[in-house]
Amino acid sequence: MGVPVVITLALIGAMIPAYIGLLFALSPAKALPQATHRLELLPLVMADRYAALALFALTAALSGNMTVVAVTFAILAVPGLGDAVIYARAGHSYRKHLAAGLGALLVSVLALAASMNGAA
């Protein structure tokens, strides 16, 4: 299998969570069973998600590649900032989420600047 097949499969793999994410945004009641998640197990699911986010961050950092770090941390900023907006609109505490999102953006910007100045 060549590169085009891998890229095609990766794009398909990206479309599935994008679809589920959109479904959760538009109709959470329909999304939960479609994603085969159970409300009572969401804390355990969140543990998996946080572990995955940590692995993405660690892998990017250990790569030493500033472009990889910049892109990864820009993506990692999305859940923190998104959660901050969700909780702020609902009148709940959001500062930790905002700090996490802004911290990830800061890392992304610093890595982007380093990559533009010739760092790997």
Distance between the termini: 29 Å
Radius of gyration over C-alpha positions, nearest whole angstrom: 17 Å
**Inertia-based shape:** globular
Structural class: mainly alpha
Give the number of helices: 5
Determine the mean pLDDT.
Answer: 95
Strand content: under 5%
- Number of distinct beta strands: 0
Order of helices and strands: HHHHH
Total number of distinct structural domains: 2
Instruction: Give the fraction of residues assigned to helices.
Output: over 70%
General description of the model:
With 120 residues, the chain is mainly alpha-helical. The chain has five helices and no strands. It folds into two domains: 37 residues; 82 residues. 82% of the residues lie in helices and 0% in strands.
Main traits of this protein?
82% helix; single chain; 5 helices; globular; 120 residues; mainly alpha
Mind sketching the topology for me?
Elements: H1 3-26, H2 28-34, H3 42-63, H4 66-89, H5 95-116
Please provide a brief summary of the model:
The protein is mostly helical and 120 residues long. 82% of the residues lie in helices and 0% in strands.
